[in-house]
Design goal:
The protein is an alpha/beta fold. The protein has ten helices and eleven strands.
């Protein structure tokens, strides 16, 4: 029997281990303050104690990393990555999202509520093991490898193309795999859109690759993402943790979400006021 073992990076890129529904390890946070968690939980500092409490709260509230995992949820934020994907799937501009889910691994998603539920309240997934109950909820036929719950975005993209999807969004962490996804051979009528999340502490090369190939990038607590955006004068939205629209299509996706929730559309006002951004930026 496969050991139940899940590793995520959350709240200041802190490594957290969850086993059998219990938080068994919490690393040292790299970021002290995040305005998102200040707003949600009145957290003035990202301490190990708060992080453990927050992850345990997620386990209680929606069963993260457990068989009780809820896979359909309402919007979490105004315009996070999952909210942008959900809205554009509802509009018919995206017909498949390749993403990852705890207890599932890489999977294909078409249901906007599952797109939101899977990604809306989970930070970066480093590794996971299969949970049959969760795989059943998202549909085993949509899971790249239900026996191992591998995190394999390239295989997810391959599976989406083989199934005939034409407008495929892929969510990915900063890495060289972004280039592989962008250059993956595909039919001429297939579009692939890249959404880069969890950029805190990303390296120079990773950020450069992301800005070259991605459509949408979140700022998280990354100083390098903000510096690159400043240099390129990229369109964005958000005064605390901006989301950057790199390509024209990325800007369309972001603006569609902003329009849906009645917010002003993307801007390219620089320099950004970083007074309310996470601290420190790394």
């Amino acid at each position: 029997m496969v050991k139940d073992y899940h590793v995520i990076e959350a709240l200041g890129k802190t490594e957290v281990v969850i086993e059998n529904g219990e938080v068994t390890s919490v690393g040292e946070p790299l970021v002290d303050y995040c305005p998102i968690f200040d707003k949600i939980d009145d957290a003035k500092h990202l301490t190990q104690e708060f992080i453990k409490w927050n992850i345990e709260k997620r386990i209680r509230e929606f069963g993260m990393c457990t068989p009780q995992r809820v896979v359909k949820m309402p919007d979490m934020m105004s315009f996070g990555i999952s909210e942008i994907l959900k809205t554009n799937t509802e509009l018919g501009l995206i017909d498949c999202v390749v993403g990852v889910c705890d207890g599932v691994g890489t999977l294909l998603m078409r249901d906007p509520e599952i797109i939101q539920g899977v990604g809306g309240r989970v930070s970066a997934l480093v590794s996971t093991t299969p949970i049959s109950e969760v795989i059943e909820k998202v549909g085993e036929e949509n899971v790249v490898n239900p026996k191992t719950a591998d995190l394999t975005p390239i295989k997810g993209l391959e599976m989406a193309i083989e199934r005939g999807y034409k407008n495929i969004a892929v969510t990915i962490l900063p890495s060289e795999i972004i280039k592989e996804i962008a250059e993956y051979p595909r039919p001429k009528d297939v579009n692939v859109y890249i959404f880069v999340a969890h950029t805190t502490n990303a390296g120079d090369e990773e950020v450069e690759i992301a800005f070259k190939y991605a459509d949408v990038i979140t700022a998280c607590s990354s100083s390098k993402v903000r510096d690159f955006a400043e240099k390129e004068k990229v369109y964005y939205s958000g005064s605390k943790v901006p989301i950057f629209a790199i390509s024209p299509k990325g800007r369309e996706f972001l603006d569609n979400r902003l329009e849906k929730i009645g917010k002003s559309l993307t801007i390219n006002d620089y320099p950004m006021n970083k007074d309310k951004h996470p601290n420190p930026l790394i």
